[in-house]
Amino acid sequence: MRETLFNLLKADLGNLEPPDAVKEYMNACIDKAISDLRAAGIAVDAENAEDHMTIVRAAAWIYKNRDSREARPWQLQRDYNNRRLKRFGGGSCDI
After folding, report:
1. How far apart are CA 3 and CA 37, in angstroms?
2. For the stretch 11-35, what's the b/e string if a residue is b when 16 or more beta carbons lie within 10 angstroms of its beta carbon?
3. Domain annotation covers residue 92
4. Most buried among 30, 43, 47, 93, using CB within 10 Å?
5. Structure pTM?
């Protein structure tokens, strides 16, 4: 799963050949995204493409906003909310 997430993050950020220091930071952003999902009570499935994309979107947001204190964008927050709803047997929130 790690290599897939890393490759997806590189593509999302448009940085397919990052230097080693940037690779380490990108991997830390992936770890933080997974940690944030778990802290929100969201189980992460290594085989689920939807989970991969949620992790990558969260990691990309962390990477891009490392110097700001902006809240999560509504699309990413919606992804988190949808994952929570699915966990509790509900539908999805497409607002």
Report:
1. 19
2. ebbeeeeeeeeeeeebeebbeebbe
3. no
4. 30
5. 0.82
